[in-house]
Every structure is written in C-alpha cells, then in structure tokens.
From TrEMBL:
This protein's GO CC annotations: membrane
Superkingdom of origin: Eukaryota
Keywords: Membrane, Transmembrane, Transmembrane helix
Location(s), subcellular: Membrane
Phylogenetic placement of the source organism: Eukaryota, Metazoa, Chordata, Craniata, Vertebrata
Family: Belongs to the UPF0239 family.
Record organism: Salvator merianae
Protein name (Swiss-Prot/TrEMBL): Mannosidase beta like
Topology class, membrane: Single-pass membrane protein
Record keyword Transmembrane helix present: yes
Transmembrane segments: 21-42
Length: 85
C-alpha cells in the first residue's frame, strides 16, 4: 500500500517568454508606483540659500505684478463676452 503512493512533486511547466515579461513588468510597475508615492509623501527639502535668493529677487516683482495681472485677466473675459453677443 505504501508503494502505491507517489509523493513526488507535480510537474510544473517552465514559464514562457511572455509570462516572464509579465512577471518582471509587474515588479517594475510596483516599484515605480512606490517611488511615485514616496516622492509625494517625502518632498525634497530646498536649501536655505536658494530660498533667500529667490525671495529677495522676486519680492518687489511679486507685489507689483499680481495687481496688474489680476486687472488685465478680469478685463479680458468681459471683452470676449461682449464680442460673442
């Protein structure tokens, strides 16, 4: 009775070329997604030197430009709506 039992592992066919591509593609896709998620969660800190230089250079421009841009942006849609009528 013990001689009738076959305890050898079942034969598993070797994966095909397309199965290998799919297998490794899924791994690379998962790694890429983890990197993207980590990039969102952990932002790269900027150096203090670049922050102060950019702030000093743009401080006078930032105060003057938004007012001019805001007025010109609000005027453009009004003109366009009049033209459509």
């Amino acid at each position: 009775m013990a001689a009738d039992l076959d305890f050898s592992p079942p034969e598993i066919p070797e994966p095909t070329f397309m199965e290998n591509i799919l297998h490794y593609g899924l791994f690379f896709g998962a790694i890429f997604q983890l990197i993207c998620i980590l990039a969102i969660i952990l932002p790269i800190p900027k150096t203090h030197k670049t922050d102060t230089e950019n702030f000093e250079a743009k401080s006078s421009e930032v105060i003057k430009k938004p007012k001019a841009i805001a007025t010109s942006v609000s005027k453009k849609p009004k003109k366009e709506t009049k033209k459509k009528r």
